[in-house]
Description:
- The protein is of the alpha+beta class.
- The protein has helices at residues 19-26, 29-39, 57-70, and strands at residues 2-7, 10-15, 53-54, 80-81.
Amino acid sequence: MIYVVDVNxxxxxxxxxxxxxxSEIAGSPGFVQALDRFFLNRQGFRGSxxxxxxxxxxxxxxxxxxSSEFADATADxxxxxxx
Length: 83
């Protein structure tokens, strides 16, 4: 299933097997560090206390398009900005 984390008026999607797994990914140090780097030169990232939610149909379509174009077969997790 595709889950989304909303951060600073942006939405980031990723694949997880369950809501619990999505929460683990969203709270993991690697995920937090990736978002920190993304927001480094922007308005700032205020930690990963954001709960994952199921993607909307539109977010799912955007994620599918991006993942088919940019996915690396060796990547553990693909995180795509969908909003």
